[in-house]
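Sanity check

After download, print the first record. It should look like this:
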Amino acid sequence: MTHADTQKAAPSTLQDYSERIEALATRLGLDFYPVDFEIVPNNFMTEIAVYGLPVRMPHWSFGIRYIHQLIRQGMGNSRIFEVMFPGDPCHAYLVNNNTVSENTLVVAHVLGHADFAKNNQLFSRFMDMAGGHILEQAAARAHAIDAALQEHGQERVEAVLDAALALEPHIDINQDLHRPLYPTTRPVTSVKPQDPFHTRYNALPGETPRQASPQESGRLRVPPNPEFDLLWFIANYAPELEGWERDIFLAVREESYYFYPVFACQIMNEGWASYWHARLLREADFLPQDLYLSAIKAHSDVVRPYAADNQLALAVNPYHLGFSMWEYLIEKRGLEEARRICREEDDFGFIRNYLDDELAQKLELFVYETHDDGGIRIANRNIHAVREAILAPKFNYGAPRIAASEINLDGSLDLLHDHKSDGRGLDIGRAERVLDYISRVWRRPVSLHTVGHSGNARVISSKKKDR
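Expected structure tokens:
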């Protein structure tokens, strides 16, 4: 763990506590990549949280997110204690106006994240593909986009970024980051000589040999099957995309691959880090009593199950749910079984396999529904319904499941909404805006096939809004 920045920006006590907590974590069996800690001002921390990286490609949408974050902070609804980026090494940022006790807790929390990132199979797979140096890679991409801005102008570059960032969640996690293009021709197979009967039959008057279809003659359809990795598909098959435009799409795609495990394991990961920060603080007998009590108070605020003023929370706190599940599993099954689960699962397997009736009742989890008059009531406490309600926002990276289905002879592109597996309707206004973004880089008409509220077929077009 690198402490150079911590030494410059924080009291020596935090430096001492962090080193001793790291040693304690190692003794307790945590296995993590080195962590570079840096203490930064609150405004810089907000920028990191909003942009997702310390240095990232510039775009107006990040500015809007920054304003929203400032509003939430001003209302007391969103306080950022730390931001951590998995990698080798990991990078963690702490706020300089946190108390020593809060930052001591954050150090312990980050070590839990670092252990999870190194040992979870989903994190490992995506890091093998995207590399373990995301901060350096993102800075290089930002520099390349600055160069494109100088050469091609803000309007052209922003149009490409609009389309690429609008499609940010539309990757295919079952495909590798680096994948080959589709084959363009069928493999050549030797033609067997016809038997004497077919030779005489084809020679009869009026009989002509059957002509091969375009597919049989060697040309293949593009895409050969519905393609859900829209960033990859547009980067490689948009008819007039220039090299620098293609690079922007592939850069956004690579960052989306990097962030996917963080999204798909949020409940597990935050719960694991919260379990370990609580345990490390509890076993850190070198901490002064007043610091320990302050840190535990901060822990309670992070993992509380309720909203402000003890009001019932209508959204799941991933810290609370994850922490409660890991405590429950370790008590019931032991730490080694918990480590196995940590290695092998994401949130889908974690919730479906290990959130049981007993724990759901203890945590008072339920599915609710709203009425036109603004009223809210409990609709279901069935454990299967509760699980799926928790997981529904996480399906397909939180985005509608859309595939490129066909490039037509005129170069226009057809997209298909997989509404059957998606189980969600489309925000038509947003879909129209995204189609317009795509058509600017595809430079041909783009249409999206979906269904309306009554289940009837519906086509949304980038040119004619609907037909």
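If your output differs, re-run the checksum step. Summary of this record's structure: The chain is about 55% helix and 10% strand.
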